[in-house]
Every structure is written in C-alpha cells, then in structure tokens.
Amino acid sequence: MADLPIVRFEEKIIETVEKNPVVVVIGETGSGKSTQLSQMLYKRGYAKSGMIAVTQPRRVAAVSVSRRVAQEQNVRLGEEVGYAIRFEDRTSEKTHIKYLTDGVLLRESLFNPELNQYSVIILDEAHERSLNTDILLGLMKRLIKRRQSNLKVLITSATLDGGKVSRFFSDCPVLTVPGELFPVEIVHISERPKNYVEASLKTAIDIHVREPEGDILIFLTGQDDIEKLVLKLEEKIQSLQEGSCLDALILPLHGSLPPEMQVRVFSPPPPNCRRFIVSTNIAETSLTVDGVVYVIDSGYVKQRQYNPSTGMYSLEVVQISKVQAKQRAGRAGRTRPGKCYRLYPSMVYHDDFLDATVPEIQRSSLAGTVLYLKSLDLADMDILKFDFLDSPSIESLEDALKQLYLVDAIDENGSITSLGRKMAELPLEPSLSRTLLEANELDCLSQALTVVSMLSAETTLLPAPSKSSEKKRKHTPSNLPDGSGLGDHIQLLQIYEQWYQTDYNIDWCKENNLQVRGMVFVRDVRKQLSQIMHKIAKGSLDVQTSKRRRDSQQEYRILRKALFIGYANQLAERSIRHNGYRPLGFKSELVQVHPSSVLKADEDGMLPNYVVYHELIVTSRPFMRNVCAVEMRWVAPILAKLEKLNVFKLSGGSSQPDKQIQEVTLNVEKKEIATIQSPEDRDSRIQAARERFLARKGQK
DNA sequence: GAGCACTGC
Fold first, then answer.
1. Which ranges of the sequence are coiled-coil (predicted)?
2. β-pair type (A312-319, A300-307)
C-alpha cells in the first residue's frame, strides 16, 4: 500500500467506522482518501456481504482512481476492482470495490432503492456539492435508518467544514487527515485592480522576470479574457530582452478547446522554459497540471444560475468562495513549495467572499430532480420538506412542480403519473423524456431520439468561435441543412441524418465544423436511449434515410407536435406587432429568438406566432436558444392547463406555502384568467389576431 | 443580430 498520510490513521478510521453508521473524513488533496479508504475497508472484511462503492463527481476520476487501486491490489481492472460510468460498466461478479460516478449510483438507486448490493458507500469529493452528490446525501440519510445493521456510509471532503455535514447526519464523528501539499505562500494585492487581465499580465511578467523556474497557472473567467491575456503575454515576452530570462510557452486552457489542445498542458515543458497556463476553473478540479509553482487568482468565476420566477438561466461573473480560493492556491503546492498571488485584498477575501460556493442545487432548475425523487416513492415524502444539506428555495421547488404538471409527469395533486414514472427512467431532462414518449405515440420515435440526443450534447457540437476565427467563418458559409425554416430542432435532426448517411464519417464532421467528440457522444446517447425505449417502442428506432422518406414536411410536423407536448413548460407567444416573444407561465418578460437560430420568418419578416424553446438564457439580453415552430391549434389545451394550475395543490397541500411566493409564480396565470374566460375564448382571440395578421399581409 | 464556466445520467 502506498505511503500516504491516511495510512497512519487506519486503526482510528476502522474503529470509528465500526462504531458508527456514518463517518465524515476530511482530507486535503494528497491525503490518499480516494484510493486508500476503500482498500482499508476491504482488508477488514467490509466487502463480505456486498460491494464497497466509491462515488466520484467526474467520469475521468472514477476511471483513473479505480485503475490505481487495481494496480495497488495487483488485480485486473474490471475484476475485483472495477468502475461504472455512463456507457461503460467495467465490473463483474468478482468485483468488491466499485468506483462510479454519483450519477450512476443515483440511477442504480432508482431500480434498487435499498442499494442492497453495497455494504459500504463512500461519497468522495462531497465538498464540491454537485447536484448529484447533494441528492445522494439526502438519500443516504434516509437509507442509513433503514439499513442501520448492514450499511456504512463515509463522506469525504477536502475542506474543513465537516461540522455542517456531521450535524446533518445527527452529529456523526469527523476524522481529519492531513494532506500532502507543500506550503503555499499567499500574497494579496492591496487594491482590487480595475482590469484583472492587465493585472494578471503584470503579475505574470513580474514572476517571470524575478522568480526562479516553475510554471505559472492563471485563473480567469472565460475564453474571451483568456485569449486576450495570451496575446498580451506573447507580445510582452517578445519585447523582453532575449536571454534575460527563461524561455516562455503560453498555453490557453478551457473547455471548448479541442482535446488535442487541452492535452498540451500534460506534456512537460522543454528545458529552460517556463509555461504560462491561462485557464478557466477547469484547472481548479477537473484537470491537474504538473509543474505549477505559481498561481495567479483573479478571484472571479463564471457561474450559471437559474431564476425560477422567470425560467431563465444566466451566466454571470461572480466572486469565488473561500473554498475555491483555497483550492486554486493549492494548485501551486503539488510538487514543491509555491506561491499564490491573489488579485484582491485580504480584507475582501475575509469579509466579502462566501465561505463555500453556492451549491448547484440552489442554482439549477429542479424539474428533473423532483421527478426523480417522486419516482422513488419514499415513505412520508413531502417534496417541499425533503431533507437536503442545503435546501433549495420553495420557489424553485414549486417551479419544478409546475413544470412537471405541464408535461403530465405529475397530476394536479402532485402525485407522480404512470407517464412520469416512465419519464424518470430516461436519462434526460423531463421535457425531453416527455417528447420521446409522445413521439412513440405519434410514430416519430426515431426522429425524436435523434433530436433529443443532439440536444444532450448541443453545446459541445459547434466549436465555440473565437474572435480570430470569426472572419474565416463568415467567408465559408456552412453547408449544413437549415431546418427547413422550422427551427433548430429540425436542423439538429437533419444534421445527424446527414452524418448517418456518411456512415458516421469523422472527416465529414471536421469538414462541417462539428466537434467530433460531441457527435460521437450524441451517437452513444442515442444508442443508450434506444436500448431503454426498446421495451416500449411502437415503431422503428433506427435512423431514417431520405430514401424511405415520402413527405418530410408531414414528418417534421408530427415531430414538432411531439416536441410541443414535451416542451409544454417552455412555450412562448409572439407579440402581435414585432418578433419579441413572451414565455407563457412565467413572470412576463420579453425575449428574443437567439440570432444563431435557423428559424425563418415569413415574407413579411414575421416569425411564427408560437414557438417552444429549449432554453432561456440571459446574456446581453434574454434569448431563447433552440426554438421550434409550433401550430396555433395545438396551444389551447396548454393554456387551459396553465389557467387551472394550483401550486398549492401540486405541492400536496400538506404544507402552507408562503402566500407571497405563490402570488408571484401565479402572476401570469391570474392575468390570463382576468382577460379571458375559457380556452375557447382564448382560441377565438388567437383566431382574431391571426385574421388581422393575414389581412395586413393581404394589403401588402 | 450574438458570443457560453464546468460537470453528469
């Protein structure tokens, strides 16, 4: 067994686990908790009546850590020690120690809520507070009561706030294991810079000129700033006198870089050369860069946030938390003592920074989470009172219930429907699983499978255009299909069908500027979804080819109908005079179709009266991303449903919701009730608007 | 007419 700090605490750990159902283990990076805890427990016979599960928030971690453990145990990976991640299960009947992503464990728990195959469950990296880890923490608290005699739960975290987790698990013991990091000297700047790209440049050059060798890792917020700084660093370093300092290699690092660019940070630098790695927070946890001795921390991060009252996501630059600041600093001390330059005063750190990052569960739409929990049929389960380590707001839970009701996953009393149960089995967000099930009824399952799979990977399909490549792109117009004017979903379908006709040719993706990684992922998702749908599929699951296609307009129309049913919670109505839309069912706000959309306007420049959208995102303005034209006649039943909506009933009526909150969420619906009496009235109003519209068109 | 951090089933 490796000589890691945690090994010295083996007796104490085993003794504590023996006496307690839940134990929190705090261990800094390098303590060995991820690889050693499972082996210690295995050695002491804890895997005799079931496997030892270790969850990881990320796929690569599950794979790499299990590989290490298999090596240390001197067994073949996939036998006594294995891993399970989406699309890949490398375990067997022999497996005693199983590493898996927390998402996979959640899915397993859907089919076996008692998780009887495990005698020990270790939730690793709990401090990252991923949505899935938080759900698991809540489930473990319940499970421990039911399986007190034969289940041990360990929760491991890198940060010091074990107290909170301990209180959550009725004051369970907290063990602290030292890490194996080298000391990192922290330097704070005395005043916050106006421009942190400039400040990073200055600091980096100072280090380069004055400090001994060692790579520099710089944390910025996004691609734009990273590209700016890379350019400036190149300029500045060229102007430095040759031979006066080390050579320099400047590397950008962010998620939308192609993989071959990302792996450049893993190859060691040439001799006498200092590397400048300019990165997003991808280097905070997901990627570990060796050789870093200096860290420059801007103190900011770009974070996605969901607003349940408007249904909108926004991507905002926010201050990092103390936990994140420590994590960033720690990146300087992995190989030898390092230094971290913080581009903010220590007062700001102490007084302004939050102790911990706002957990994902408080920043996301919870429709999928709530549906998942409902489908577990937990005893005495009141969704508004589910015991989370940090509860999401009531407003956010009510928004989730409302959305689930609109897509028929729960009934008006908040009980899960049989449709909802089928939806929960699909690894998709509720709108997309609802679309698939409706498509199965309408006989367009094959097409829906394709669209839904494309959407599962959408952001990684088209390469993020950088400023430098923008001009090139404009001169080479895309040869990709245009969705026949009906919107982005139809375009995604057409793109995938074309790729299918090239027999999944990788070069075709490259020629068309589609990310290979993304397209291969789509293919995997489609395969997985097909396997799940196979049991209940009424028609063919295979990708259709144009040879077999008679009438694509009719086919697209049916598919759009299925999408409409799935996106009943994401429906928008165009204003009569212009192309602004109002999302229905949310606090009213005017939104635009995203300029990247292929949705076409008619001869008068008017967009469709109604569209469904995949996502509302606020950037410079609120936009609908991925929109699909729907027909007016489909809309009335959904409007009727919106009017009937009673959030109090949906939440089970067992808890008295805050009145004010309820009124905010019902704002729009109340207005609708005030202006029109029934769906039929609504229909006639739509018809009248349509006629005015046609009359105006006739005049021209 | 715009631009998007990172994960995961």
1. none
2. antiparallel
CA–C1' A60–B2 (A) = 33
Question: Can you tell me which residue has its alpha carbon closest to the C1' of nucleotide B2?
Answer: A595
Protein CA at A161 to nucleotide C1' at B6, angstroms: 23
Q: Binning pLDDT at 50, 70 and 90, where does residue A672 land? A: very low
The DSSP H or E segment spanning A307 is strand A300-307
Question: B1 C1' – A595 CA distance, angstroms?
Answer: 5
Burial class (CB in 10 A: 0-12, 13-18, 19+), A139: buried
Sign of CA dihedral A512, A518, A524, A530: negative
Residue nearest to nucleotide B1 (CA to C1'): A595
Residue with CA nearest to B8's C1' atom: A103
CA→C1' distance for A227 and B7 (Å): 23
Average pLDDT, chain A: 85
Q: Which fold has domain A5-177?
A: Rossmann fold (3.40.50)
The two tokens of residue A24 are: 């929190």
pLDDT band at A699 (very low <50, low <70, confident <90, very high): very low
CB-CB contact of A356 with A323 (8 Å): yes
Residues sharing a CB contact under 8 Å with residue A100, sequence separation 6 or more, in sequence order? A53, A54, A55, A56, A62, A83, A84, A85, A108
Q: Which nucleotides of B are covered by protein (CB under 7 A)?
A: 1-9
User: How high is the pLDDT of residue A23?
Assistant: 95
List the single range of A296-310, A355-369, A412-426, A638-652 with lowest mean pLDDT: A638-652
On the question of pLDDT at A664 being above 80, the answer is no
Global model pTM greater than 0.85: yes
User: Quick check: A278 and A262 in contact, CB under 8 A?
Assistant: no
> How distant is C1' of B9 from CA of A72, in Å?
30
Whether A166 and A174 have beta carbons less than 8 Å apart is answered as: yes
Bridge partners, residue A174, by sequence: A24
Instruction: Tell me: pLDDT of A464 over 60.
Output: no
Helix (H) or strand (E) holding A616: strand A610-618
Q: What are the extents of the domains in chain A?
A: 5-177, 184-358
Nucleotide nearest to A528 (CA to C1'): B9
Give me the residue label for tokens 């709990």.
A126
> What fold, for A184-358?
Rossmann fold (3.40.50)
